């Protein structure tokens, strides 16, 4: 389960991306990047962050620690931007945050050094699994920190949950957007990455990860088609299990896309 912390100091907004996160200090004296549930992407983006982030961690990828963060809107009263003050006010209560990596820089595929083939392949395979459309050269959502790659910002993944119709059929999709993946040119070990995915992401791991989503972010108040929190949680687990069975299809799609690049 994720730790729950209270934000004790609002530091500064990060004016990158559509969600406008902020750096905050928490009761453990740590610094975190806070993702607001009142942002335009809403609670579903935070659910995607938890599910994809924790699945990435299960695969051995470097994902900054995720924590649930209680926010008192009074912490943002000194923020001069009225829109950000409104965002903080709209996000009172439980939010999501990730460990802040001070001094990290955005990965630039034109600068190098290139990532190891095994790591690039693992990230490409993982993103195809969670249908992450937001790992492109324009917006890689990869940080270089202490000479290592860290994967961040998964709010755009698992986009099926914005419209649940035919979600099991969509779980079997090939994921054509993999052709735009920033690491695809270096992903020469996709077969091994698929084997690792199927070995490490077990039904038990999937259910443990789904259990990390707070009850308040599930159920009929968030998604009316589900009568209970338990039914909503089970639907996420079922999608992820079904998606795992589609690994040969999305691996084939990734290999076909890579063959057109190299």
State the main characteristics.
single chain, 262 residues, alpha+beta, five-stranded mixed β-barrel, three-stranded antiparallel sheet, 8 helices, 17% strand, HipA-like kinase domain-containing protein, HipA_2
Structural write-up:
There is one protein chain. This protein is an alpha+beta fold. The chain folds into 2 domains: 3-99; 105-259. Helices cover 35% and strands 17% of the residues. The chain is built from 8 helices and 8 strands. The protein has helices spanning 42-58, 82-90, 117-129, 167-171, 190-200, 203-210, 229-245, 247-259; strands at 3-13, 22-26, 31-35, 66-71, 93-99, 105-106, 142-145, 148-151. A 5-stranded mixed β-barrel has the order 1-2-3-5-4. Strand 1 and strand 2 form a beta hairpin. Helix 5 (190-200) packs antiparallel against helix 8. The chain starts with a strand and ends with a helix. The mean pLDDT is 95.
